Every structure is written in C-alpha cells, then in structure tokens.
Amino acid sequence: MGSQLFESYPEVYDALYGTKDYRGESQFFAETFAERGSATGENCLILGCGTGRHAKHLSERGFDVTGIDRSEPMVETARTRSDAEFRVGELPDVELASDAYDLVLLPFNIVNYLEYGDLEPTIATVEDAIAHGGVLVFDTATVPDEGTMYLQSETAGEGDHARLVQMRPAGENRARWNSIVFSEAAPSGFFVDNVTLALYDDEYVGDVLDSHGFEFTYRTDYGEATETQEQISIFVAEYVG
C-alpha cells in the first residue's frame, strides 16, 4: 500500500475525511445485519478499521467490535476513540478465530488497497472467521477510463489541510492514486502520497463470493450516507456455507 497518509499522518487522514458520514454508514451496516443475518451474536470484525470511527459508532449500537489495520499509527489513534479491541494485522494472512464473527466489514475500499490477486485469499480468511448466517459487507471503488482529478480542502482543529488528487488507470486491473497533501502536520508543509489500487470486476467478485459459500446482493450506494462523488460497488453477503 505504501501510503504516507495512512502510515505517518493519521491526524491528517481524519481531517481530510472528517465530513465522511461514518455514523450513517454504520447505521447501514447495523440495519443490514438485522435484515439479512441469521447469526444471533453481535461480534463485529472490521478489517481495515483505520482510525476507528466505524468501530466507535457500531460499539455505541451494542456490537462487540474488533478492529484490525495494517497501520500501527491508525490503530493507536483508534484506541483513543472507543473501547473496542484494536490490533495490527495485514490481509490476507491475519490470524482470526474460526466462526467467531457475526458481522464482518471491509469498509472504505479496503479491497482496492490489497495486492491484486489477494481478494480470493482474503475472502477465504473471512469465510473461516465468520459465523454461519453472518453478514459480510464491503465496497470496491471504480475509476473512470479517462481518470479523474480533484482538489480537497479541510480545516480541522488548529490546522488547515488540502490535497490535490489524480486517479487514473495504470494498466490492467490497476489504478494510480497520486496525491500532493498540504498540511501543517508535515515538517516541510506537504508530502507526496502515491498508491497503486487493485481494480476488480464485479462479476469476478461475485464468483469469489459464490465459491466461498456466500449469497450476496449488489448495490451502488449506502443510501443517504453515500457522498455524491463516490463511484462504488457494494456487496452484502450472507455466509450460508
């Protein structure tokens, strides 16, 4: 993944995504679990938990949340946000108890940040960890053929933060997310953040879910919690074994 934003500047990450509707998305996750899941527990696993905002809202809704992220600074920030359990781990090889989780989330395009080809072993890891009748929810990003560019500016606390982003195709099944981030948190006042994303065809994702015992539905929004500029595919999958 190699993102300075994730690995070194969790406070800047929080500032840039401060307007994201984590509460609304968490409500979607909870309501979807109530509607689709036949598992009776409330153990929730968030793979790619970031700074713990989804975990906070789901804990407030009564879930017993475990959050895992590859970035230690993000995990450290998450621990200040709620009493959920947080630890460092990296997909697809993270160690998890079998049949332990009723709701499993890979939010905010986490799948795209995996190495290309790691989707199938990641879903295999989830299959072992999720309880029968449990619900898996994740989303994947899409990149227009011509790419996209935008400027974002946010003020949080005592600091101003801005980011110039270019997303563009970068060969088969891949895209580049190139950013210049301007922030007072960086010693030089800015840093460069370049990330390669893995892109997955929706049909392929569906085939992977089918092969690991998941029945799924597909949608393109989180309802009112979806930001207008987002281009996402959302998979809601029940584990039927």
Automatic annotation (TrEMBL):
The keyword Cytoplasm does not apply. Gene3D superfamilies: CAC2371-like domains, Vaccinia Virus protein VP39. InterPro entries: Methyltransf_25, SAM-dependent_MTases_sf. This is Class I SAM-dependent methyltransferase. Transmembrane segments: none annotated. The lineage of its organism: Archaea, Methanobacteriati, Methanobacteriota, Stenosarchaea group, Halobacteria. GO terms for molecular function: methyltransferase activity. One of its GO terms (biological process) is methylation. It comes from the Archaea. SUPFAM superfamilies: S-adenosyl-L-methionine-dependent methyltransferases. Residues 46-134 form the Methyltransferase domain. Keywords: Methyltransferase, Transferase.
